[in-house]
Design brief:
The complex is a heterodimer of chains A (151) and B (643).
Chain A (H helix, E strand, L loop, with lengths): L2 H11 L13 H17 L2 H5 L11 H10 L2 H5 L21 H9 L15 H13 L15
Chain B lengths: L10 H17 L1 H6 L1 H4 L9 H5 L14 H11 L4 E4 L6 H10 L6 E4 L3 H15 L4 E5 L2 H15 L5 E6 L10 H4 L15 E3 L4 H16 L6 E6 H5 L23 H13 L3 E5 L6 H14 L2 E4 L18 H7 L2 E5 L4 H5 E4 L5 E4 L6 E5 L21 E3 L3 H15 L2 H30 L9 H12 L4 E3 L9 H5 L20 H13 L4 E7 H4 L5 H7 L5 E6 L4 H14 L19 H7 L3 E6 L2 H16 L4 E6 L4
The chains are: A mainly alpha (151), B alpha/beta (643).
């Protein structure tokens, strides 16, 4: 692993609690995001509806989400089942460890290495579908219960 | 301009002149004394006008018992090279023929490579297992241009590759046409920014002296590549059998060691610290380095973070905190970097957004210390030296050579009170190590049964088949999320050799083959986790392994992409909020999918796959290992998750 990659890995390891919006980055990007969110609210985009949700996204379709997870590149860093990867620094998100609201906030305004997915590039409905897919992934057994992992 | 009517003095006619000189030596001491200089010259003495217009006679010398290239092989043998890797080239045809006939093709044995970058990478991997360099032969122009990336990787990885270039300096000795394209005024110039030393010998004595000098320079830390140019005429000119020249005596210099005062101060800081951390990277140049690092860590009962530029520290040693590196460094009050390639990186975090930012990852008052031979040799152009380290102490010395005196100093300074504190610390670190191992096992369980196969599953299926063998993992684990280091039990120096150094793709397959060549005589089972994109650079290395019966098991990490670049393009698309589904364009290796098993078979080696069902992987690896144990290379193609 490169040191750069390790930084990403370490960063991702703490990202569950690293969601403080005051660490969102430069002011100009904050302004852009603010305008996008304002526009979404003004025109009734799904982003406004998504704010009302918690664990369960509105109208999430897991089958559609699985396709979007691949086509929109989420799998590239997080793995095809959202298992995460130390090399990429991407956290394990399958199944997700955040509520939908926290998940959505992080995807839109990541505070670490993850690139931002705006609602322009990834509409809220698609994000809801992706979340539904990730929620559908079952938890695996513990590592100690897989013999090959204990050799 | 008058048309030249004199016969051209080409290389072949030059032999006559050289033979005449040799005849003069044979005629007696007086005659020899009159021409001592000529015997050492690259270029023959100017011919007389009479000689130049002389009509070739039946006495023309067309053969020679011994030429300069034979002596060059004597020199190469004196340096202890076991192998010379090369793609054949006419500019070093003299040395080539002398190696295989005069030298008996033994020590060195000629290893046929299909690309000069493969030649260099083989030497790169070989050194990191065997601890001594291989020679590489290449054209001074087209060969070196192919080899340059490999040399740069070796330079960044502090590996002494010994490159010998063929070239023809004298314009009157070049055959019109190709030899002009393959000749250069200053052959080594192209790689001078990332080699340690080079020379263009103009006599055989000069060659002997510079060959020994190059070897010593290459092998003195910081160990780095060197280049020696073997002029074509010097290779092919006859030499008399009684020529009084010999290879130069070779002595390797002792590595630079930290001065005693600085070492004592470092020891004082380490002993007084509550949470010292030792960061290793290219620390263990030899097996002794690993043992020395264990000694120091155990004397202090302190954390070790292994960046794995080499196999520095046992992965299951309770003091190994590599899997919680950031936490260990963040809690430290003294951090000692031991030949760390990027010490700034380990002490800072970095964020790659539109505005790139970094911040310290250490406590404000943490003492930062480095011991590195890199400080003894830094060039300006290529930026492998990384960010400037604002450290409290920087010892310009080889860390492996400095460790024994540092450990002794620590033991002298450790009072009984401090030793009790060390023991308590050791207990805490052992618990943290076991927790980290458990976390890694739990993380590996995710996507355990997935298809394509997860990199954790791939790593553990391989481990399941080799753990009771005398194994050596010679491929970089960077792109499989370092699962082997996180889950396997490494405790020997040859069990891991780090990565390319310069992250130049195309290194891994040939470096693994070179490492396997080194492992062959030790009877080790060489295994390599091989990325598909890397193999596609120069797949001819598979043929080299089959041809020379180099036993190595390649397990393909076939994610069907130059995946690092998939992610990089994705970052840009996300940043611009456009086309986020297009990032496979120009980055993936699909349509058609490559059949690496068939590729391997076409090169004359065992191939199996593609395998995408994890349940089929273990048995496939087992079958391939049986092939490798028979002394042949094998490849198992595994379709994998990205990382």
């Amino acid at each position: 692993m490169t040191i750069w990659a390790e930084h990403r890995a370490e960063a991702s390891a703490v990202q569950q609690t690293d969601l403080n919006p005051t660490q969102a980055g430069p002011m100009k990007r904050f302004v852009v995001v603010f305008l996008l969110v304002s526009a979404a609210l003004l025109f009734g985009f799904p982003a406004a509806r998504a704010r009302q949700s918690s664990d369960t996204p509105p109208n999430g379709n897991a089958q559609s989400g699985k396709k979007l997870f691949m086509s929109d590149g989420c799998y590239e860093c997080h793995g095809r089942q959202g298992q995460g990867a130390a090399q990429t620094g991407a956290a394990r998100i399958g199944p997700p460890q955040l509520s939908f609201e926290g998940f959505q906030n992080y995807v839109r305004k990541p505070t670490n290495q993850m690139p931002p997915y705006t609602s322009k590039a990834l509409p809220d409905q698609d994000l809801s579908d992706i979340y539904a897919y990730l929620k559908s992934i079952p938890m695996p057994p513990k590592g100690k219960d897989i013999p090959l992992l204990n050799k | 301009m008058a048309r030249q009517t004199k016969p051209v003095v080409d290389r072949r006619n030059f032999l006559k002149g050289a033979a005449a000189g040799a005849a003069a030596v044979a005629a007696g001491p007086a005659a020899a004394a009159a021409q001592p200089a000529e015997l050492k010259r690259t270029v023959p003495p100017p011919m007389s006008a009479a000689a130049e217009v002389e009509v070739p006679s039946g006495a023309e010398v067309l053969t020679a018992d011994r030429t300069g290239s034979d002596f060059m092989v004597d020199v190469i043998k004196s340096l202890g090279f076991e192998y010379v890797c090369a793609n054949p080239g006419s500019s070093f045809r003299g040395i080539h023929e002398s190696i295989i006939n005069y030298g008996g093709n033994k020590s060195p044995e000629f290893i046929t490579c299909c690309h000069e970058e493969s030649s260099v990478a083989m030497a790169h991997g070989y050194y990191k297992v065997e601890g001594k360099p291989l020679a590489v032969l290449a054209h001074g122009t087209v060969g070196l241009q192919h080899a340059a990336m490999g040399i740069y990787n070796a330079y960044c990885d502090r590996v002494p590759v010994y490159v010998i270039l063929g070239n023809i300096i004298d314009v009157t000795k070049r055959v019109p046409g190709v030899e002009w394209f393959h000749s250069v005024q200053d052959a080594a110039a192209m790689v001078r920014d990332f080699t340690k030393w080079d020379d263009l010998p103009i006599s055989l004595e000069h060659f002997a002296e510079s060959a020994a000098r190059a070897y010593r320079i290459a092998m003195t830390p910081p160990t780095l590549p060197v280049v020696l140019v073997a002029d074509g005429d010097l290779q092919e000119a006859p030499i008399p059998s009684d020529l009084k020249i010999r290879p130069a005596k070779l002595t390797t210099e002792m590595p630079p060691v930290g001065d005693s005062g600085s070492v004592a101060e470092v020891a004082r800081l380490l002993v007084a610290a509550e949470n010292p951390v030792l960061v290793a990277d290219r620390t263990a140049r030899t097996p002794a380095g690993l043992a020395c690092l264990v000694d120091l860590a155990e004397a202090l009962q302190c954390s070790v973070v292994d960046q794995a530029g080499r196999m520095n520290f046992p992965t299951r040693h309770p003091l190994n905190q590599s899997d919680r590196a950031r936490a260990a460094v963040g809690d430290a009050d003294v951090i000692l970097g031991l030949d760390v390639a990027d010490f700034y990186g380990i002490t800072h975090t970095y964020r790659d957004q539109i505005e790139r930012t970094s911040r310290p990852g250490t406590k404000p008052n943490a003492k930062l210390i480095t011991i590195s031979s890199d400080d003894l040799y830094i060039k300006a152009n290529y930026q492998d030296f990384q960010r400037f380290n604002e450290v409290d102490m920087a010892l310009a010395a080889d860390s492996e050579a400095t460790l024994p005196s540092l450990t002794e100093a620590v033991k002298r300074l450790a009072t009984d009170d401090r030793k009790r504190a060390f023991q308590d610390r050791g207990v805490r670190l052992k618990a943290a190590h076991l927790q980290a191992l458990e976390r890694s096992r739990d993380a590996a369980a995710f996507a355990w049964d997935a298809s394509p196969i997860s990199t954790a599953r791939l790593s553990m299926e391989l481990w399941g088949q080799i753990q009771n063998e005398d194994w050596s993992l010679v491929g970089a684990t960077t792109f499989v999320s370092k699962w082997p280091q996180r889950l396997w039990n490494f405790d020997k120096h040859y069990q891991y050799i780090g990565n390319a150094g310069g992250y130049g793709i195309g290194y891994n397959a040939p470096a693994a083959t070179g490492a396997a060549l080194a492992n062959r005589k030790h009877g080790r089972l060489t295994v390599n986790i091989q990325c598909d994109g890397d193999l596609m650079y120069a797949p001819g290395i598979l043929w080299t392994a089959a041809h020379h019966k180099i036993p190595v098991l390649h397990i393909m990490h076939n994610n069907r992409a130059y995946h690092q670049e998939v992610m990089q393009v994705q970052i840009m698309a996300d940043r611009h909020s456009r086309g986020i589904a297009n990032c496979g364009t120009g980055t993936t290796i699909t349509g058609p999918d490559v059949s690496y098993a068939k590729l391997a078979e076409s090169m004359g080696m065992y191939g199996e796959g593609p395998i995408s069902d994890p349940k089929e992987l273990g048995p496939a690896i087992k079958r391939a290992i049986e092939v490798v144990k028979r002394g042949e290379p094998a490849l198992v193609d595994v379709v994998t998750q990205p990382r």
